[in-house]
Amino acid sequence: MADVFDEVEEELRRERYQAMLRKWGPWVAGAALAIVLGAAGYQYWTHSTRQAADTASDAYQAAASLYEAGAYNEADAAFAALAESGPRGYATLALMRRAAIAQAAGDGREAARLYEEAAERSPEPITRDLARYRAVLAQFDELSLDDLQLRLEPLTRPESAVGPLARELMAAAALRDQRWDDARRRYELLTIALDAPPGMQRRAQEALAFIAQNAPLPEPEPAAAEDAEAGDGAMDAGAQAQDADDGAMELPETLRRVMGEDDGARDDDPLEVLRQIREQDTPGEGPGGEEDGR
After folding, report:
1. How far is CA 240 from the centre of its chain?
2. pTM for this predicted structure
């Protein structure tokens, strides 16, 4: 009798297993297939992304070589092709190189447009901020201080690596527009800013010296004004002409170069600029990595 009961129990167990297999088998098989296909798809995506980045890197280096050789039209065409079809990172860099070529040719508006497009395409905040800063810099002579301030204020947030550059450009615009008190205040803050590199602080000191020599004296008190009336006739013709010449002022060359060579921001290669900015932002560490082209 024990053998009969064992056979019945075994048959019931087998039927339960078959029922479970019929109920859950397709789901288990589907999940296993999904895992296999997902792993294969991820491997394919990783390989394709790496291959596209390698191809874009070669194209970028080829275009950069044309630029270094002085073939600017050919380099611009090569960068344009990369910006059209390359991954976002390399497309951003290509647009910035095209903007630098346009600016060197004297087309500030086209340079600003390309920098703005690069900012929209950039996958990295630091590159996006640099592109927006350079878009404003490309039109520095055409924008008023108020326009500059409207565009640059978002770049002065604490986490922005180009914050000191944006503040210096606003100070230079205030000085250009002869807003002496505003310019003096901005440059004084730069001289003590902990995030301002040495070259920028030196330029701020030069600007303050220029302001001290050229800014008009404060309005005299009423009593002092009466005493000064007698000396008005002694003003020479040269001084009168200088007082009559009001408006936009031509800044000295040292102050117009608001992005100094020692700050690493005048290089036409955005990769080099980003490396320099990252080194300043993280002192004591090695150079920051390049964009990965994703």
Report:
1. 45
2. 0.68
DSSP per-residue string spanning 20-52: HHHHHHHHHHHHHHHHHHHHHHHHHHHHHHHHH
Residue with tokens 């040292």: 254
Spatial distance between the Cα atoms of 278 and 290, rounded to a whole number of angstroms: 10
Q: Please report where in the chains the tokens 């220029």 appear, as a residue.
A: 210
Residues 6+ apart with CB under 8 A from 55: none
Q: Give residue 139's identity as a one-letter amino acid code.
A: Q
Report the alpha-carbon distance of residue 125 to residue 291 in Å, rounded: 11
Work out the burial of residue 140: count CB atoms within 10 Å of its CB; fewer than 13 is exposed, 13-18 middle, 19 or more buried. Answer: middle
CA dist 53 and 248 (Å) reads 47
Count of all residues that appear for the chain in the document: 294
Q: What are phi and psi of 104, to 5 degrees?
A: -65, -30
What's the CA gap between 86 and 96, in Å, rounded? 14
Beta carbons within 8 Å of 72's beta carbon, 6+ residues apart: 66, 101, 104, 105
91: tokens are 């497309």
Among residues 7, 266, 276, 33, which one has the least CA distance to residue 137?
266
- Is the pLDDT at 272 greater than 50? The verdict is yes
Question: pLDDT, tens digit, for every residue of 120-158?
Answer: 999 889 999 999 999 999 999 999 999 999 999 999 988
Inter-CA distances, 285 with 194, 270, 278, Å = 18, 20, 9
CA distance 45 to 52: 10
Cα–Cα distance, 248 to 134 (Å, whole number): 22
- Token pair, residue 77, equals 């065409």
Residue 136 DSSP class? H
206, with CB counted inside 10 A (0-12, 13-18, 19+), is middle
